[in-house]
Amino acid sequence: MKVWKYDDNINTDMLFPGKYVYTCSTPEEIKPHLLEDLDPPFAKNVREGDIILAGKNFGCGSSREQPVVGLKTVGIVAVVAESFARIFYRSSINQGLLLIECPDVVKAYSKGDNVTLDIEHGKIIVGEKSFFFPKLPEEILSIRDAGGLLPYTRAKLKKK
Q1: Alpha-carbon distance values, 156 to 24, 38, 149, 151 (Å)
Q2: Crossing angle, helix 138-146 and helix 86-95, to 10 degrees?
Q3: Residues 74 and 48 sit within 8 Å (Cβ to Cβ)
Q4: Which of 36, 40, 154, 156 is deepest in the core (most CB within 10 A)?
Q5: What number of H helices and E strands is found in the chain?
């Protein structure tokens, strides 16, 4: 697992440039443009199971789904940040991308540290230090496991 670390106020335009909003709509069209202005090697080097660590207000800016769809599609397992923009948080839940607020983890991480994420127990290990976060609600985990809110809702309706 690779850790991608970014500063405060990473906005949606940095995650997915606005100039592509009307020309890229499928996950495959979105992927090559992820973080292209912020971190050009990201799209080519990100792998399934990687995580993002970030500062305050991650995902601020305009409301658009492409950044979340792209991060989910490339296999980002979670974004751990000091805080998230509310609209990005909601969009992430809808797409099944886990977001974890844990400022101490972000501050403790140094480049090269091993990071282990234990969602079930609300624990993140950075190097030799353990950090705890409130256990994620079962509903959020179920949405993630279903692949997003739409598949989750469809499955629930089929059960009725």
Answers
A1: 30, 39, 10, 9
A2: 60
A3: yes
A4: 36
A5: 8, 7
Looking at residue 1, its pLDDT comes to 83
User: Cα–Cα distance between 57 and 23 in angstroms, integer?
Assistant: 27
| Helix-helix angle 86-95:66-73, to 10 degrees | 50
What end-to-end distance do the CA atoms of the chain give, in Å? 39
DSSP state string for 84-132: B-HHHHHHHHHHT-EEEE-HHHHHH--TT--EEEETTTTEEEETTEEEE
The answer to whether the beta carbons of residues 82 and 8 sit under 8 Å apart is yes
pTM of the complete model = 0.93
**Domains, in order of start, for the chain:** 3-135 (3.20.19.10)
CA-closest candidate to residue 53, choices 122, 121, 129, 1: 1
Rounded Cα–Cα distance for residues 52 and 80 (Å):
6
